[in-house]
What does this fold into?
Amino acid sequence: MLWWTDDLKTGIEIIDKQHKSIFDKANKIFNLGTSSSREEIEKIFIFLMNYTINHFSDEEKVMLDNHYDDFMKHREQHNYFVEQVYKIYYNFKGDKITDEALNELKMLIIEWLANHINKDDKDFIKTIR
Ligand SMILES: [Fe+2]
Ligand SMILES: [Fe+2]
It folds into this structure.
């Protein structure tokens, strides 16, 4: 399990709040199972969709304001995450959630926290501080 740590702090309140919120939500996602209610799973996807819209645009705005060199590379990763979330959600909408789909979602989140937030977001935070 990955936890929010102070080195993720940007000092920009809204970004820090958003990062904390996905760490909190990750704990809920890891506890999902095929016996979880449709409503419960639906709520997670709604959160993730709103998160990607709000957080990614806020973060990208900060990058642009700071002329961040790796902006395009970073934005591509955001776009990839959005695509994956929608793809998993699309399959879930058509059917009962399967173990496979849940694992796909969990892997995506673990990967995202470990590699994107913990590495790529940190890189950009370092340069704007
Ligand atoms: Fe990011
Ligand atoms: Fe981020």
About this structure: The two ends are 27 Å apart (CA to CA). The mean pLDDT is 91. Residues 19, 55, 59, 117, 121 surround fe (ii) ion (ligand 2) (CB under 6 Å).
